Amino acid sequence: MNKDHKVLYSGMQATGNLTLGNYLGALKNWVSLADEYECYYGVMDLHSLTVRQDPAEFRKRARALLTLYIAAGIDPEKNCLYLQSSVPAHAELAWILDCFTYMGELSRMTQFKDKSAKHADNVNAGLFTYPVLMAADILLYQTDVVPVGQDQLQHLEITRDIAQRFNSIYGDVFTIPEPYIGKVGAKIMSLQDPSKKMSKSDENPNASIYLMDDPDTIRRKCKRAITDSEATIAYRDEQPGLKNLFDIYCTCTGKTSEEAVAEFQGQGYGQLKEAVGEAVVSILKPMQDRMAEIAADKSYLDKVIKENAERAYYSANKTLRKVKKKIGLTEMPR
Ligand code: TYM
Question: Ligand 1 centre and the CA of 134: distance in Å?
């Protein structure tokens, strides 16, 4: 990690099945950033607790997510990849920041409104204060940039507001972070309803491609994707299903939308869907194979988890100590 560079922070929840949206909107963009930034990527296991988890399954999933980061090409020597719960400073700063955040601000978060409608039987306080924990994640590392998909922008906005509020009282304690949104892939839509984002919590399994889907399942889901009856190959808002397929194709192949439209001109939607399926398989299959290889080497993974958590712990605690001092909490006598 290059400590002279600007700091970049991001992460994913260790909940449910990750989708192609998580990969194309986030993970894929992270791979090339280590040369330019000092990068921290958390496995956000504390955030996942807003939903009831099966303990054994949950432990496996958090470890699998860290494995996935490595399999996607994020080098744990050049980046800091760690489990959020290994660094207690996250929960500690979140509590402090809770006291600098207003109920009104949190009530306006669209993700809270959506999720509390979806899980009406478990609208817990963690779901409500979720964005404050996210603010703590980001602010602990004095982060300059946060690469996220569009759906997380509102959470980044509240992070900035909380940091500015805190700084206006205590001086320049926190760096104010900026969002960093990739050009394509910022919002991958559902394959069954292109007005909704592709989401791991979608009830229709055909709506999302999961990162662990086997090649035949991926091909089948692409074939079944909802398009339109216009029978025109174009990249435009009026044909949202097709546009989403092109976005997936372009993000997987590195082609521009103009190049992709030219490539499929005169062909049917079926051919495009087939090519999208192949493009996705060619990205996901090698990653799945690599994940299995890494997971098989338990001692390597244990070492990565330990060493990276220690680095994260060190950076996070530098900020936490400063915050505690500023607000007047008593330092433990040596
Ligand atoms: P999460 O786990 O829901 O999603 C992880 C990342 O994937 C992006 N994403 C998408 N991008 C494009 N199209 C989609 N359909 C799509 N679905 C998801 C998300 O924007 C995100 O970048 N609260 C965060 C996790 C988090 C975090 C943080 C992120 C906790 N603390 C600090 C950054 C910094 C979340 O639930 O993401």
Answer: 11
Query: Atom 5, ligand 1: which residue's CA is nearest?
Result: 12
- Per this entry, what is the length of the chain? 334
Rounded Cα gap, residues 200 and 207, in angstroms: 9
- Which of helix, strand or coil describes residue 108? coil
Domains, in order of start, for the chain: 6-181+298-327 (3.40.50.620), 215-292 (1.10.240.10)
Nearest alpha carbon to residue 240 among 255, 220, 226, 251: 226
Distance 90 CA to ligand 1 centre (A): 18
**221 three-class SS:** helix
CA dist 301 → 19, 153, 313 (Å)? 23, 32, 18
266 Cα–ligand 1 center, Å: 37
Closest ligand 1 atom number to CA of residue 18: 2
Strand partners, 42: 11, 82
Nearest CA to ligand 1 atom 33: 10
The per-residue DSSP string of 40-106 comes to EEEEETTGGGGS---HHHHHHHHHHHHHHHHHTT--TTTSEEEEGGG-THHHHHHHHHHTTS-HHHH
Q: Whose CA is nearest to atom 11 of ligand 1?
A: 25
Residue of 70, 11, 2, 10 whose CA lies nearest to 311: 2
Q: What is the pLDDT of residues 125-161, one digit of tens each?
A: 999 999 999 999 999 999 999 998 888 999 999 999 9
Residue 166, pLDDT score: 98
> Does ligand 1 lie within 6 Å of residue 9's CB atom?
yes
CA dihedral angle for residue 22, residue 24, residue 30, residue 31, rounded to 10 degrees: 120
